[in-house]
Amino acid sequence: MVFLLKKIQPAKKPPCFTGSFPASLLSELFEETARWVGKTKELHTPCGVCKSLESFSCQRPLVCSWGELWAVGGIPGERDHAALLEPPGQSPPRGPAGNRRLHCLRSWAGEAAGVWSCVTSPACCLLPGARSPSMATQMFEGRGHAAVYQKYRFAPGKELQQTILSYLREKKAIPAQLAVDVGCGSGQGTHFLGEHFKKVVGTDISEAQIQEARATPCMPNISYLVCPAEELPFPEGSVDVLTSFTAAHWFHLERFAREARRVLRPGGCVAISTYTLDMSLRHGQCSQQLTRVFRECWDEILKYSNDKIKYVLDDYKEIFEALPFPDKKRITDIHDPIPMTVEGVVGYMESTSSYQTFKKKDPTAATSLLQETEKRMLETMGVSSRETPLEFLVRHVCVLGCKES
């Protein structure tokens, strides 16, 4: 597969734009391949994901930098490397991790510094429904799903945060330079890390999730990359702390464990957590009845769960065992009350992969289930507003480990 960048002129001159470019540009780009390909520059070694594809047909992001749009397109039939067309007399930055692959393209114009766009990670190479068997399971790809996820997923609770920070202090892993949040989704856990580390990078295999994360206001020390959890674009021994919040069960465990060992510095730490499925609700005197209404809906949604949920059901025991560090522990009784509203609880259920699978199979029944559940919750609470506050009680499991010095 060959990725090419072609400069085109926009109708306007916005400082920054990210979106999809018209399909009509693809044919023009393809027609000019012969003329442009001589100017390409190989930027990474062959990638197994690219090689596994039999064809390529999709749209790619645009990056607009002070009036210059760079359309990223694919060339069918060429799958053994990725390349980048560079403007005359200018050279793009090399990708991290020793030129393994280009994960980010920085705008050519110096005055537009800070505009980044992921263009050639293996995650971007994947066609809808296609993935390497050694990569993470992809369940959060659609833009609509990513938007719901960003709106309704909650940040790590205070007890979980303190559990992680206490462990890192015990191991003298903080203060530190670099924390990497793997499977960051739209950045809920990444924001927490931004308060405690000089530099934080959130990574996710879903381009849609990363777009949502980048669109959300955050601290200036936080950035995001699209890449698989099993192929992190960081040099060996360069990461101080590696985290994953409610995501590790989607990874290819063996490959992720090896990659964690590779990128962590000696004495570096991992903190891998998830909330479990045994949630409950609390509101005044009707908590028990309210939880029953929630559980009836939740149990119906969980019928559509992916097999990977087994790792959550066993409290991350298998993930704990896969962690390649002798110094490690698993905590299974971290309880956090998450402030929410009725809308937030219903939105959380909508954001789950299980509900999205249900919705694809039977959209009418899935939509009706949430609507009826919201109605029953309001009736149970004796209120009419979706904004009525309540507490969402969750139990966290956290796997902690420290690489030997």
Automatic annotation (TrEMBL):
The keyword Transferase applies. Belongs to the methyltransferase superfamily. This is Putative methyltransferase DDB_G0268948. It comes from Serinus canaria (Island canary). Signal peptide: none annotated. It comes from the Eukaryota. GO terms for molecular function: S-adenosylmethionine-dependent methyltransferase activity. Keywords: Methyltransferase, Transferase. Residues 180-271 form the Methyltransferase type domain.
